[in-house]
Amino acid sequence: MGDGALTAGDGAGAGRARGLRALAATLSMIKFQHTLFALPFAFTGALLAARGIPSARQAGFILGAMVGARSAAMAFNRIADLDFDRRNPRTAGRPLVTGALGLPFAWSFLAGACGLFVLSAAMLNRLALWLALPALALILSYSYAKRVSWLTHLHLGASLGLAPLGAWIAVRGSIGAAPCVLAAAVTAWVAGFDVIYSCQDAAFDRREGLRSIPLRFGIRRALRISSGLHVATVVLLLALPLFAPLGPAYLGALLVVAGLLVYEHRLVRPDDLSRVNQAFFTLNGWVSFLILAGTAADLALRA
User: Fold this and answer.
1) Which pLDDT tens digit goes with each residue over 110-146?
2) d(CA 62, CA 163)
3) Which domains does the chain have, with CATH numbers?
4) Residue 169 — left, alpha, or beta (φ > 0 → left; ψ -120 to 50 → alpha)?
5) Cα-Cα-Cα-Cα dihedral of 262, 155, 49, 59, to 10°?
6) Concatenated DSSP letters for 125-167?
7) Which run of H or E residues covers position 178?
8) Could you tell me which of 160, 210, 215, 214 has the C-alpha nearest to residue 40?
9) pTM across the whole model
């Protein structure tokens, strides 16, 4: 009796352990933490659209749409790039490569994430629903952009640039100048740091026939292009108060963001890419939060 209970307990414990490992592998597959790059910009768009705090219902479905879109994009990218990931030492530890997750699960997860995105859009308003499938097409097609064009970084940027534009539409049911400027800023920001990140794979991309700015122009010029994209980011964010009720708090946050971007480019040199991950993950993780905080503070002060 005691042995049987112990065996049953061990089985339940083993099942929980397997479940936790599967959850960890799933979150690793979709790089869930990267959702934090775009999510604050989405809520910045929502705050600007509402001229304050959107309703709890709107915020909940915006969150659902963001999680669904980002999860779908990453799952599809892992599926599409599986053969490349197997041959690239940098990506050899990804769950689909190691077998921690299987392709049938990845396809099912992709379908569920797409469903969450479309359902969330449908619950927001008609325009959000109409634009859901074109948005998905843009987001998912990024996985093949690197096979045909070195402008793939802008494709990725535009995919994340949909976040503030989509959130504005979720609240207003229409399109305005402010979210378009913010979307353009996010596009340039993401493209800039993706150019830096892709410098690590220039040799691999050359062997596999893939396209990227570092491969097309060389790492030194690619880093200059990345700097130019981040200058454009700051200029666009500086222009945002022309179309939205933003003031000192936002501009103060933007000043810190500009400083972070300058520091990011000081971390990475053509002959030393050892600190790419610090530039990519640590510094860029603060950019969107700072813009959200500055926007929220200004709107609160004007309330």
Assistant:
1) 999 999 999 999 999 999 999 999 999 999 999 899 9
2) 9
3) 25-302 (1.10.357.140)
4) alpha
5) -100
6) -HHHHHHHHHHHHHHHHHHHHTTT-TTHHHHHHHHHHHHHHHH
7) helix 177-198
8) 160
9) 0.87
